[in-house]
Amino acid sequence: MNNTQIAKEVIEALGGRENVRSVAHCATRLRVMVVDEGKIDKDKAENIEKVQGAFFNSGQYQIIFGTGTVNKIYDEVVALGLPTATTGEQKAEAAKQGNAFQRAIRTFGDVFVPIIPAIVATGLFMGLRGLLTQEAIMGALGVTEWNADFITYTQILTDTAFIILPALVVWSTFRVFGGNQTIGLVLGMMLISGSLPNAWAVASGGDVTPQIFFGFIPVVGLQGSVLPAFIIGLIGAQFEKAVRKVVPEVLDLLVTPFVTLLVMSVLGLFVIGPVFHVVENYILIATKALITLPFGLGGLLIGGIHQVIVVSGVHHIFNMLEIQLLAESKAATGVASNAFNAIITAAMTAQGAATVAVGVKTKNPKLKALAFPAALSAFLGITEPAIFGVNLRFRKPFFLSLAAGALGGAVAALLGLAGNGSGITIIPGTLLYVNGQLPQYLLMVAISFAAGFALTYLFGFEDETPAQAVETSTLKNEASTGAVAPAADLAEETLVSPLSGEVVALENVNDPVFSSGAMGKGLAVKPTEGVVYAPADAEVTIAFETGHAYGLKTATGAEILIHIGIDTVSMNGNGFEKLVAAGDKVKAGTPLAKFDAAKIAEAGLDDTTMIIVTNTADFTEVAPLAEGTITHGADFLKVVK
Q1: How many CA atoms lie within 13 A of 620 on its CB side?
Q2: Alpha-carbon distance 476 to 557, whole Å?
Q3: Residue 111 lies in a domain
Q4: Residue 311 sits in which domain range?
Q5: How far apart are CA 597 and CA 260, in angstroms?
């Protein structure tokens, strides 16, 4: 099938030209904004020749073709009449999609997602501290009692994020709503000023009591509060922008910060803080009442519906809820506790297990190649590739995984499991349960996996007939642009690192197309300098006009994609400088491109750079050779024919 025929099938699967608002592409996938998602024939789309997977993400239907191929298919669908847009324009349009509730939930996600890494790290510190203070571990280390300095240091590690949590929330809310982030940070710090009675000390019932302002308003610091800080940040950012509009530009530097901090500190401490702290407490009471329903019913309900909520795209609201649970338990008991994490771990485990069952049962090589990496992604905490790439496609695996997730959630609730952090689940989430809960956690995961696998394998999936199976060759990318590649006469080759920085396992990359392995095996690097070098003697097959992605072909025939950052195509080349062009022959270590990490950060994007062998199926082995800190030119990947 030629590319024109493929393009026609893509348009047909999308529901026709009239169902397409716009089409764009990045280095690996066609990105389509549609009028009506229900008109897309997703089964047909995923089985079109050269398609490596398809799913919804950020309001776009994304069809994975791979480097080189996607350019050709894009040209064909545009020639057949599909309207175009830049990826940045599509991203802006996607942000407007959905009803007001869905947009509000996306905003919650935008506010709380940047805070989660600090909460994750704190949870791991708590787990490590709990492990090191267990008698058996202390005995094995030959310690009878840790000295006071060590205990103080561990408290710094486990308490700081929760002490300054309101400041982090106000800062991030100002960032999302367009306020001055420094003003937001200072306003947030005012809410937890050391001049105010400490909320945790007041809650402990000791001698510390609220300070009475104006004779009738009891005020305490907002340590650990989340919802009040969010509301203060939301109103504060809007108020600051309103003040800036009426203040003469010559006085803006003096007047706007002064007025914003004065007015918002009064509202925050004496009105918004007290009122929404009460609202927050009622939300927490209701949440804990649901989770602790008798006979594990709360876990059954949450475990059963969690992945449906993920499909709806409004699951980001749970970020705020989990952070509230952790902060409240930390304030009340001194130990952060999040029972919600264990329940959703069960739901996600079941989802991944259903995908494994499909991969084991199918004889379709393309489906196998999609299912197993998608399942691995799920077990590392990202279920979207499993949901959209496999389970929803066949429907029964998805719904049976919900039943298995409900069972696992009930087990989690009955066992009283509660992680000491949030943001990580299943395999990495194990670290949140090393405080004496690890056996119960592993039991819950095993039950969830067994139920999801067994239900799907026995009742949820019938394999396609051999005539329907797609040949493995359709998984291969067409990275070449027509130039003559180096002779493929080597049996083994070592690729060197194209960047200096920290090595990141591919499954930990925050993009399901790369983390699921759909594009092939490889590694990523969090760069510490803005230059990308050739990883081997090669021919440049693709050099995107935007400067964010490059394709190369080496002497072994390895087709390498270097993708600088995530979603950086939306920057339209701003901050990127191409140093090579398609057809150039380069030596290992030749500079390919320069990029400005600061501009990527200003755009709110991640500069983690992926290095993928896109024709992994042509090799018997593609193995990582690097970890930790690396400099460009060091051994990075090994490819073996």
Answers
A1: 4
A2: 12
A3: no
A4: 296-315+335-468
A5: 31
> How far, CA to CA in Å, does 145 sit from each of 135, 294, 434?
9, 39, 20
CB 511 within 8 A of CB 522: no
Q: Comparing C-alpha atoms, which of 360, 187, 175 is closest to residue 265?
A: 187
Q: For position 13, which CATH number holds?
A: 3.30.1360.60
Q: Is the pTM of this model over 0.90?
A: no
Q: What is the pLDDT of residues 554-585, one digit of tens each?
A: 988 899 999 999 888 888 889 999 999 988 99
Q: Tokens 């024709």 — which residue? A: 615
List phi, psi (to 5°) of 611.
Answer: -125, 110
**Mean pLDDT across 199-216:** 78
> How many separate domains does the chain show?
4
pLDDT at 441 over 90: yes
Give CA–CA dist 341/345, Å, rounded.
Answer: 6
- 301 and 378 share a domain? yes
Same domain, 281 and 339: no
**Residue 562, both tokens:** 């270097």
**Residues contacting residue 238 through CB under 8 Å, at least 6 positions apart:** 177, 179
Q: How many CB atoms lie within 10 A of CB 415?
A: 17
Identify which of 210, 182, 411 has the alpha carbon closest to the alpha carbon of residue 297.
Answer: 411
| CATH classification at residue 602 | 2.70.70.10
Residue of 455, 445, 360, 361 lying closest to 401 (CA atoms): 455
454 lies in the same domain as 502: no
Distance CA 335, CA 325 (A): 11
Helix axes 297-312, 273-291, angle to 10 degrees: 120
Q: Which of 411, 391, 389 is nearest to 402 (CA)?
A: 391
Burial of 485 (0-12, 13-18, 19+ CB in 10 A): middle
Residue pLDDT, tens place only, 129-169 = 877 887 778 888 888 888 889 989 998 998 898 889 899 99
Instruction: Tell me which DSSP letter residue 269 carries.
Output: I
Other C-beta atoms lying within 10 Å of the C-beta of residue 590: 17
Residue 578's H or E segment, with its range, is strand 576-578
Contact 564, 607 (CB under 8 A): yes
Residue by residue, DSSP assigns 333-345 as HSS--BHHHHHHH
Structural tokens at position 387: 């949901």
Secondary structure (DSSP) of 504-552: EEGGGSS-HHHHTTTT-EEEEEEESSSEEE-SSSEEEEEE-TTSSEEEE
Tokens of 552: 């190369």
Same domain, 308 and 372: yes
**Does residue 132 sit within a domain?**
no
Nearest to 424 by CA among 348, 479, 519, 333: 348
Cα 88 to Cα 577: distance, rounded to the nearest angstrom: 19
Strands 629-630 and 606-613: unpaired
- Tell me which residues are annotated as active site: 26, 563
- R_g (Cα) of the chain, nearest Å: 26
The answer to whether residues 354 and 300 belong to one domain is yes
509: tokens are: 């990359």
